[in-house]
Design a protein that fits this description.
alpha/beta; five-stranded parallel β-sheet; 14% strand; globular; single chain
């Protein structure tokens, strides 16, 4: 297990692992994506953030305030295969935080939830398969697809009991 301890030079393991790496972060203007983008930029990674800035989905340019010179922001929808074909090229890693997260919205408009949480993932994976098959992908989902927990803490062996469309699509 790695840690984030500093070496005698002051560099952490994260700094050493990401210095000079090319990292694409989808959903990168949301809370989690932007926090990761700032940390990895501080570690010396070359960051491209992709976000559609769809109202109510959490993306906000303010989340990267002060990082304009170190993080490239691309306003694009991950469902757009042409954008993703271009954006994945040359990247070492992809942190995938893009998605529709509202469980209520998924029940009101299940087709949009399906489009954003399933079709978009296929767009990303196909772009990687065609244009960057060696990219490392980290996908963030939700515990919601486990539904009401049978036991705590929930782990990977827990049976799946999604309770809504969002949980199914994730």
């Amino acid at each position: 297990m790695t840690n984030n301890h500093s070496s005698p030079t002051g560099a952490t393991e994260i700094d050493r692992a990401f210095t000079g790496r090319r990292v694409l972060i989808t959903g990168g203007l949301g809370f989690i994506g932007s926090t990761l983008a700032r940390r990895l930029a501080d570690a010396g990674a070359h960051i491209i953030v992709v976000d559609s800035l769809i109202p109510a989905y959490g993306g906000n340019l303010f989340n990267l305030d002060g990082y304009a010179d170190r993080i490239t922001v691309n306003i694009a929808d991950v469902r757009d295969e042409y954008s993703m074909d271009y954006l994945v090229r040359g990247q070492d890693m992809l942190f995938n935080f893009a998605g529709q997260t509202s469980h209520l919205d998924s029940m009101i408009d299940p087709y949009t939830d399906l489009d954003i949480n399933v079709r978009s993932q296929l767009s990303i994976l196909e772009a990687c398969r065609k244009h960057n098959p060696n990219i490392k992908i980290v996908y963030a989902s939700t515990r919601q697809f486990y539904g009401k927990p049978d036991y705590l803490p929930v782990d990977e062996r827990h049976l799946l009991h999604p309770t809504d469309v969002n949980g199914i699509n994730k």
